[in-house]
Design goal:
Elements lengths: L2 E5 L2 E4 H4 L10 H12 L5 E5 L11 E2 L4 E4 L3 H11 L3 E5 L6 H14 L4 E5 L1 H5 L1 H5 L6 E3 L4 H13 L9 E5 L2 E5 L21 H7 L11 E4 L2 E2 L10 H5 L4 E2 L2 H15 L3 E4 L8 H14 L4 E8 L6 H9 L2 E9 L3 H8 L5 H13 L3 E8 L6 H14 L3 E6 L7 H9 L24 H18 L10 H14 L4 H20 L9
Parallel strand pairs: 1-3, 1-6, 6-7, 7-8, 11-14, 14-15, 15-16, 16-17, 17-18
Antiparallel strand pairs: 2-5, 4-5, 8-9, 9-10, 12-13
Helix pairs in contact: 2-7, 3-4, 10-11, 11-12, 15-17, 18-19
Length: about 525
């Protein structure tokens, strides 16, 4: 059996392209599935990441009607399918906005190979299985984490066994949609083999260097050390993908993968993609201590947003010792009632200030995540979030607009109350306002979002003020310009930062300035 696993291209509006930074990282979900398939005896496996395989992925391909596509063209995808001649194709739909790109690949497959079975997986199909299976080009969905579900499905296809006993799949039986609920998640995640990165062009990811978070070297890659989150934030869908129970890899298992990546790919920087790596402080410290003991010259980054409730000064000191230079914290709102009653997050704002101070004290770049436009929130509450973010004096703020993702409590509430209409899945971005309540309109939320970003990250950036880290400001503004070359505020603030640095150097008797 020839098995093909595909990560789809990205299509977005040209207007959104100007506001976002391109991210191209190894599709670890597919690499984990491939590793488990090989362990199960299947070796004719090919992974195609349509993003990294396109030489023009950074520029994109302009489409009609104001859209741009990043990744392989349909003609190239057809060529790959014809050459490989798959019997089974797994297509990732990681986000709702990938909906149409992924289904387009399913269509191409069925038109070229009508007998080929098509399986899709990821957060979006897990939370909207009926919607996806209405598509005539999709045969199966694997629900939630899919490594062993996919293996069970492949074995059933080969033996002709019934699918009814496979936990966590959805499929069509003639005109009926059958959904087998996911009954359990993988308890011992140490038993999962390391991702099959040898099936990915790792050097291309290194060369193109488009990670999700901050980076000091192009020799970086992603790693996952735990799964599951016990919290139930109203906007989040993690619980449907990996469950509410926190399941962690052992420190020895994590260290073994780190050492493997250093040896095989010369990786110097590891981006931890966990939902909450520090939930078990003892385990996190054990991992950090083992890395320190190895005396490896590496760095760690936490781009996903670490839960603030789990952080202690001891953890942050260990992070600094192990080479963490950037840490994201998920604050969400500057109003405690919004956090308690609307988002449902076990977080106290007093703790946020404490953590922000620790990060500043130990010279780790601090990034905060905030959300505007939750149903039940007022425009006054959103302004309180802006005011609170200013008090924190974070190095950078990542603002987002509440997005009703299928599978979240937010989505169910919005549908029930009529806060959203028909959703354009391809335009469901974290900076696109779609929710309308008696308290605010999408336009008003979009204006608040824009105002917060300009004020906090540019006009009143704390690193442009006395006592700030001017070199950090220069790096941040340069990063924005790389993402959006025509960003006026980034250019103005970069010029201001260089002026401040020049004055400092003159003051201290230095005659030249290093441009970085």
């Amino acid at each position: 059996m020839n098995i093909l696993l595909v990560y789809p291209p990205k299509t977005m509006t040209k207007s959104f392209k100007k506001l976002t930074r391109h991210t191209i990282i190894p599709p670890l979900g597919l690499a984990y599935i491939a590793a488990v398939l090989r362990e199960g005896g299947f070796h004719n496996i090919k992974i195609v990441d349509c993003l990294i395989e396109d030489p023009e992925v950074l520029e994109g391909h302009e489409l009609e009607e104001g859209y741009v596509r990043y990744g392989l063209t349909d003609d190239k995808i057809k060529e790959i399918i014809q050459d490989y001649d798959p019997d089974l194709v797994g297509v990732s739909i990681p986000f709702s906005m990938s909906h149409y790109d992924a289904l387009n690949i399913c269509k191409i497959i069925k038109e070229l190979k009508p007998l080929c079975k098509v399986v899709v997986g990821g957060s979006h199909p897990t939370n909207a299985p009926e919607l996806i299976l209405k598509n005539p080009y999709v045969d199966f969905i694997t629900l939630g984490e899919s490594e062993y579900t996919f293996l069970d499905l492949v074995r059933s296809m080969l033996t002709g066994a019934t699918y009814k006993d496979i936990s966590g799949i959805a499929y069509k039986d003639e005109n009926r949609i059958i959904i087998n609920p996911k009954l359990s998640f993988i308890e011992d995640i140490d038993k999962i083999p390391f991702p099959a990165r040898d099936l990915l062009p790792m050097q291309k990811y290194i060369d193109i260097n488009c990670p999700q978070g901050d980076s000091k070297t192009k020799y970086n890659t992603t790693i996952i050390t735990s799964r599951g989150c016990p919290y139930d934030c109203s906007f989040c869908t993690t619980k449907t993908m990996s469950g509410k129970k926190f399941r962690a890899r052992s420190a020895d298992n994590v260290l073994a993968e780190i050492k493997f990546l250093i040896k095989e790919y010369n990786i110097k920087e590891f981006h931890i993609e966990d939902d909450n790596m520090t939930l078990n402080n003892k385990r996190a410290i054990e991992i950090f201590d083992k890395i320190i003991k190895e005396k490896s010259d590496i760095s760690l980054v936490f781009p996903m947003g670490t839960a603030i409730t789990t952080l202690t000064e001891e953890i942050i000191i260990r992070m600094k010792q192990v080479g963490v230079f950037s840490l994201s914290i998920a604050v969400e709102s500057g109003n405690q009632e919004v956090i308690d009653k609307i988002i449902g997050k076990p977080l106290k704002l007093e703790k946020v200030k404490q953590v922000a101070n620790w990060l500043r004290k130990h010279k780790i770049k601090s990034k905060g995540f905030f959300i505007f436009g939750m149903p039940g929130e007022t425009k006054e509450n959103m302004q309180q979030t802006i005011d609170y973010a200013k008090e924190l004096k974070l190095d950078w703020c990542g603002f987002a607009i509440a997005t009703p993702l299928p599978g979240s409590r937010l989505y169910e509430l919005c549908k029930e109350k009529g806060y959203i209409g028909d959703i354009d899945w391809s335009n469901l971005y974290l900076n696109q306002a779609t929710i309308s309540t008696n308290e605010f309109t999408p336009k008003e939320v979009a204006e608040i979002y824009k105002k917060a970003n300009i004020e906090l990250n540019f006009k009143e950036n704390p690193n442009l003020k006395p006592g700030g880290d001017i070199d950090q400001a220069i790096m941040d503004f340069k990063r924005v310009i790389e993402m959006a070359p025509s960003h006026t505020w980034a250019h103005l603030c970069l010029a201001k930062a260089y002026l401040i640095k020049t004055k400092k150097m003159i003051k201290y008797g230095k005659s030249s300035i290093h441009s970085g």
